[in-house]
Write a structure and sequence with these properties.
Layout (H helix, E strand, L loop, with lengths): L2 H19 L2 H14 L10 H20 L18 H16 L6 H12 L4 H8 L3 H16 L5 H18 L2 H7 E10 L6 E4 L1 H7 L8 E5 L2 E7 L8 E9 L5 E7 L2 H6 L2 E3 L1
Parallel strand pairs: 1-6
Antiparallel strand pairs: 1-2, 3-4, 3-7, 4-5, 5-6
Helix pairs in contact: 1-2, 1-3, 2-3, 3-5, 3-6, 5-6, 5-7, 6-7, 8-9, 9-10
């Protein structure tokens, strides 16, 4: 790619990267990596800036995923205003601050989808390509992020219920990427029955695979006062339960444990309220 084209696009690329990553230093690194990768750009690109934005966004997504298990960032670094209309600059700055405040509750895909679409106006079809999701799923991801940005300090129970809702939705849709993002990499899924030893599945990707296209009748619920999952007996109208799942979370709000029980004695005494 011609250096002049890259230089002209660089301010926008820095703006995108800084607001996604919350760090001017990390943004510089992402843009530099994009310049290296631009050597492989097709010679007949019709929209080189759009192509570079896609490359930078994917680099930022990888960087977010690489650091998502480290300590949360409390605030974004100040950034220089981007060239362009004053209103867009003010909105971008405000969103940058909001994202810093809720970083611990935004997954990498949520943050990328929200910044690209809501701040920079990238169409959902293009964002979907970056995230490897369908446009419809990308809209849902951005919507979840938008709600969290609008309410940056939701109650812990509400945030956990949102996480369980998102987990069940991704399970029904078979959205493997969304499931992995909601799960801690070292998450554990255990199943307890009356007549078998506990079954164990370890690791976010393995658990995500186990839940693909499942949870058809599962409901977000409180189990003895804690957010969890209830699965009623199919066709039953008397509230009988097939199983319940206790869900535990990391301090950052990711699911780190799911304990499913089909034990009759426990199902008979658990206090369940669906949300």
């Amino acid at each position: 790619m011609d250096e002049e084209i890259f230089t002209a696009a660089r301010p926008q690329l820095l703006g995108v990267a800084t607001r996604i990553l919350g760090s001017a230093a990390d943004a510089e690194e992402a843009v530099q990596e994009a310049w290296i990768r631009s050597a492989a750009a097709p010679a007949d690109l019709e929209r080189p800036t759009a192509w570079l934005t896609t490359v930078v966004s994917r680099i930022c997504l990888d960087m977010l995923r690489a650091r998502r298990d480290s300590a949360p960032i409390d605030a974004v670094e100040p950034v220089d205003p981007m060239p362009g209309p004053e209103a867009q600059t003010q909105l971008a700055d405000a969103v940058g601050a909001a994202l810093g405040a809720v970083l611990d509750s935004l997954g990498p895909a949520e943050r990328v989808a929200f910044v690209l679409h809501d701040v920079f106006g990238v169409p959902f079809d293009d964002v979907a390509v970056i995230l490897g999701k369908t446009p419809a799923a990308t809209r849902q991801v951005a919507g979840r992020a938008r709600r969290r940005v609008a309410s940056p300090e939701p109650a812990t129970g509400s945030r956990r219920a949102d996480a369980v809702d998102a987990f069940l939705s991704a399970s029904r849709d078979g959205d493997f990427s969304a499931l992995v993002e909601l799960l801690d990499p070292d998450a554990v899924f255990r199943t307890f029955t009356d007549d078998q030893p506990p079954a164990l599945v370890h690791g976010g990707p393995a658990i995500a695979e186990a839940f693909m296209f499942r949870a058809k009748t599962a409901l977000t619920a409180t189990l003895d006062g804690k957010v969890g999952i209830a699965v009623p007996v199919p066709g039953a109208r008397d509230g009988r339960l097939l199983l319940v799942m206790d869900v535990s979370f990391t301090p950052q709000g990711r699911i780190c444990g799911v304990d499913a029980t089909l034990r009759a004695a426990e199902l008979a005494v658990v206090e369940v309220t669906t949300l």
